[in-house]
Amino acid sequence: MSARTRRQKAALGVQAEGSDMMTTTTASNGTARKPLSKARSPAPEEETKENVFLFVPNLIGYARVFLTVASLYYMPLHPRTCSLLYSVSCLLDALDGYAARYYNQSTTFGAVLDMVTDRCTTACLLVFLSSAWPRWSIVFQSLISLDLASHYMHMYATLSMGGSGKSHKNVEATRSWILHQYYTNKTVLFVCCALNELFFIGLYLLSFSSPILSPSLLQAQDPSAPPALASPWSAGALEMARANKIDSFWPWVITGISAPVMALKQFINVVQMVKASKWLVEGDLARRAAAQNVKGL
Q1: Catalytic residue chosen out of the listed positions 93, 96, 114, 118
Q2: By residue range, what is the domain housing residue 56?
Q3: What ranges in the chain are assigned the alpha helix state H?
Q4: CA–CA gap between residue 9 and residue 206 (Å, rounded)
Q5: Would residue 103 count as lying in a domain?
C-alpha cells in the first residue's frame, strides 16, 4: 500500500472519530448522553375549543326563553305575574348585547337566538290578544306576519348579500337612513323595542280590566247571567276569572304613551321589509347579468 493511500485512510479515520465525538459524549460515570447540539423542540400547545353555547350572552338568552315560557303559563289567568315575567324577559334583551360586547362573545348563534326569541315572544302575546278580542284578530295576525316577514327577509338579505360574517345590525346610511339610526343608535333601538312591547303589555292588561274594550267583563259581573261552564278552561270560566282583576287606569296610561312608538316600530318594519326585498332583487339581477355574460362568451 502506498504512503499516499495510508495517509488518506488515516485522515478518514480522524474524521469518523470526530463525528462520533460530535454525536455522543460520555459522562464521568460512563453513561452515554445525547448530543448537546440537538435541542428538544417544545411540544405544541393543545388548542382550547370554546363552547359557544355557554357564552354569557347566550346564557342570558336561555334565561329569556325560560321567562317567556313561564309568562305564557300565567298569561290566561294571572296578569300581574305574567306581565312581570314578560317584562323581565324583554329587559334582558338589552343586557345580552352588552354582555356580548363586554366579554367579546358576539356570535352568529347568539344573534339568531336573540332575534328568534324576540319574534316568538311578541307573536305569543299577540296570539293571546287575538283570542281576547276576536273582532280584532286580523289586526294582530297582520302584526305577527309583518314582524316575522320583515326580520326574516332583512337577516336573509344581510347574510346572502352582505356575507355570512356581517351582522344584520350593520346597515349603511346610504341604504336606509332610518334603519341605520334604528340599528346603530342603541338608545333609539332600546326605546323602540321596549315601548313596542309595552304597548302590547298594556293591551294585555286592558283585556283584564277595561269593560270598554272587553264588554264581556260586565256580563261576567251580572248575577242574572248564566253561570260559567263546568270546565275551568272554557271561554265563560276565563271571562269570570278575568273580570275586575286589576284597575284599568295604568294600563290605559301605558298603552297611550307607547302607542306612537309602537306605530313607528311598525313603520320601520315595513321599511325594513321593502329595503330587504330590493336588496335581494339587486342580487338576482346581478346574478342574471353574470349568467348572460357567460352565455355570450
Answers
A1: 118
A2: 52-161+175-213+243-280
A3: 3-23, 56-74, 79-102, 108-132, 137-162, 177-184, 186-206, 216-221, 235-242, 249-296
A4: 110
A5: yes
Give the chain's end-to-end CA distance (angstroms, integer): 81
Is 137 inside a domain boundary?
yes
The answer to whether residue 118 is catalytic is yes
When computed from its CA atoms, the radius of gyration of the chain, rounded to whole angstroms, is 35
What's the total number of domains in the chain? 1
pLDDT tens readout for residues 146-189: 999 999 999 999 888 877 667 788 888 888 999 999 999 989 99
**90 in Cβ contact with 61 (< 8 Å):** no
Residue whose cell numbers read 355570512: 164
pLDDT tens, position by position, 89-142: 999 998 998 999 999 999 989 989 999 999 999 999 999 999 989 999 999 999
Which amino acid is present at 269? N
Q: Is there a domain that residue 218 lies in?
A: no
CATH number at residue 199: 1.20.120.1760
For residue 170, is it within any domain? Answer: no
Cβ–Cβ < 8 Å for 206, 248: yes
